[in-house]
């Protein structure tokens, strides 16, 4: 036993040595990887996944210690599939971050802009660059499963008439060159990402204990399909001056034309006014679940 009587268990030792393994959708160089870096630092080991559901499965099966998923974009709106996954899987939102999205036209070295006839990228990225395609009608936009994946694909195939839309990091990783920079229609293009953990994972995120940090809470609820039911549910927050920052509706499966409502609001679940608001909402809702309480934009 070490001097002073302290004793480190094998479990504690392994926990200290453990490396963060973070699942995200896309290939290396995707914007989600930048979100991983902002949330967990450079040393986190990334696990690229082809589909969003694969990301959630990696976390469920403990192949990853965390998952990072996009939830909304300032131009394209909400990522509805991930709202559905948040309900289907028993994970907690532990943190959020915002990533500035710069879309670049990327091609193999030697490819000239005038020769490009097809551009590959994720459908959301393509739709954020509509002005570019309107100004260049000779170029066909081709949907692909991922921004960074499209860069890797055009580099692998080495076509002289094709390019991809992706990040500068993806261009660097795959040895491509940037033909045109910042194609997005609006320079204020940001994507918001959630950091997800299993409920039993220790709460030790950066900023979680920092002073003067604003907190947000995300929850989901449903109400009966009757006049005024949603108004009464939301009044639980208005009566206590709780600021709602987002509300999103999703179809309630098995009950046509009824909906689940996802709500973000400012405040911690242990504040008295928030506890009272949540207690009031539980009395009015058919179903309610808190998905996470986390530092704002940390």
Topology:
Elements: H1 10-17, E1 21-25, H2 31-40, E2 45-49, H3 52-60, E3 66-73, E4 77-78, H4 80-88, E5 92-100, E6 104-107, E7 118-121, H5 123-127, H6 130-135, E8 140-143, H7 147-157, E9 162-166, H8 168-173, E10 177-180, E11 190-197, E12 215-222, H9 229-238, E13 244-251, E14 259-266, H10 272-284, E15 287-295
Parallel strand pairs: 1-2, 1-3, 7-8, 7-9
Antiparallel strand pairs: 3-4, 3-11, 5-11, 6-9, 6-10, 12-14, 12-15, 13-14
Helix pairs in contact: 9-10
From the N-terminal CA to the C-terminal CA, the straight-line distance is 40 Å
Kindly provide the radius of gyration, computed on alpha-carbon positions and rounded to a whole number of angstroms: 22 Å
| Tertiary shape | elongated
- CATH architecture descriptor name of the largest domain: 3-Layer(aba) Sandwich
Percent range for β-strand residues: 25-35%
Alpha-beta content class: alpha/beta
Number of strands: 15
Task: Spell the H/E element sequence.
Answer: HEHEHEEHEEEHHEHEHEEEHEEHE
CATH homologous superfamily of the largest domain, by name?
A: Periplasmic binding protein-like II
Helix % is 25-40%
CATH names the topology of the largest domain as D-Maltodextrin-Binding Protein, domain 2
CATH class of the largest domain: Alpha Beta
> What average pLDDT do the residues reach?
90
